[in-house]
Amino acid sequence: MSIGQFPHVRPRRNRHDRFTRRLVSENTLSTDNLIWPIFVTEGTASVTDVASMPGVQRVSLDRLAAHVEPAAKLDIPAIALFPITPTDLRDENGTEATNPDNLMCRAARLLKKEFPQIGLIGDVALDPYTSHGHDGLIENGYVVNDPSVRILVTQAVNQAAAGIDIIAPSDMMDGRVRAIREALDNDGLVNTRIMSYAAKYASAFYGPFRDALGSGGLLTGDKKTYQMDPANSDEALREVALDLQEGADMVMVKPGMPYLDIIQRVRQEFAVPTFAYQVSGEYAMLMAAIQNGWLDRDRVIIESLMSFRRAGANGVLTYFALEAARLLRA
Ligand SMILES: NCc1[nH]cc(CCC(=O)O)c1CC(=O)O
Ligand SMILES: [Mg+2]
């Protein structure tokens, strides 16, 4: 490959100046790679801060268009919606998940009308709606699979009918991708895409998100009987293979930076559209250091997002999406 060793070979030559660095650069990060997660809440004229996620807010529907406007201006391709359900609307069975007029569906209808060009990604799982904070139904202390899937299917079809373009099941029940695909197709929603949270780990990095949703305090026990063990890697490939067989159009690995190895393996093995979620805890960690002046904000945002691209991700769900898009435009 090379003609010999130092002093003939000097890798620093290709870093000598900006033009050469540009020419030899192997990966790119652009606004095309960004998906912005958004928290929506009931009520009016309500914009509240998420304490553990500085800069992230929960917004009521009357404020949603104004909130999303900057993303439209920056040409961010898609946003991911997460509804916050008031405690009195939560129950054991997550009934509100199947209400065709729930907050998520209303948000979808509103945004489709206001910003038809922005892709809408809908989270499908029961945790925003259950009194126990789990992603599925509980029987005898166990999150049961098949009955949960039946509810997720209704939830997904309602979301798609309301204008969600990409259904993103984050629940980790077995077989839900096939069940959702069949139900969508039966309803003629053949172009609704599915981005499955295929390899989702039982992670401590979701803490701030559960604060944002108000499901953290409600959660009984942990999610280890359905989310993956952080020790496992081969299992992620089996999970992804199954979701692809079941009809997933895109797959996701979550969390992000602590799982770059998984992203890389998935991308190399399957060569399908692969997404990463830079989750709430990663955001909180970076923001805490940024706010202390310990990390350079602009550089660490771009570097952290570039790491996903290097690992092989097509795109990243990131709470930094607006900031990143601004930096990339500058
Ligand atoms: N269906 C739950 C869900 N969907 C997205 C996140 C986490 C996102 C984040 O931490 O930013 C979670 C948390 C969980 O599994 O408890
Ligand atoms: Mg699975």
From TrEMBL:
Residues annotated as the enzyme's active site: K200 (schiff-base intermediate with substrate), K254 (schiff-base intermediate with substrate)
SMART domains: ALAD
Pathway: Porphyrin-containing compound metabolism; protoporphyrin-IX biosynthesis; coproporphyrinogen-III from 5-aminolevulinate: step 1/4
Keyword RNA-binding: no
The protein's enzyme class: lyase
EC number: 4.2.1.24
Positions contributing to Mg(2+) binding: E239
Protein keywords: Heme biosynthesis, Lyase, Magnesium, Metal-binding, Porphyrin biosynthesis
GO annotation, cellular component aspect: cytosol
GO biological process: protoporphyrinogen IX biosynthetic process
Catalysed conversion reaction: 2 5-aminolevulinate = porphobilinogen + 2 H2O + H(+)
GO molecular function: porphobilinogen synthase activity; zinc ion binding
Record bears the keyword Metal-binding: yes
Family the entry assigns: Belongs to the ALAD family.
NCBIfam families hit by this protein: PRK09283.1 (NF006762)
Subunit annotation: Homooctamer.
Protein's UniProt name: Delta-aminolevulinic acid dehydratase
